[in-house]
Input
Amino acid sequence: MNAYKYGAPPHAGMAYGLDRLCMLMLGCDSIRDVIAFPKVQNASELMSSCPEGVEEKQLSELHIEIANEEK
Output
């Protein structure tokens, strides 16, 4: 509920679960069979090799700076 202090999501919190509905309608055993770009156990995506490292030039173009956490 704390996330709503940043505003409601674009879908206003209403999710239809179309992927699950398609899974049931097609009689598939896994939801990964109907998702276009399913993730594997380590949260990577096999089609585009994401997440992937980026070059310093790309970060500077987007004005993104990575700060190391001090311990």
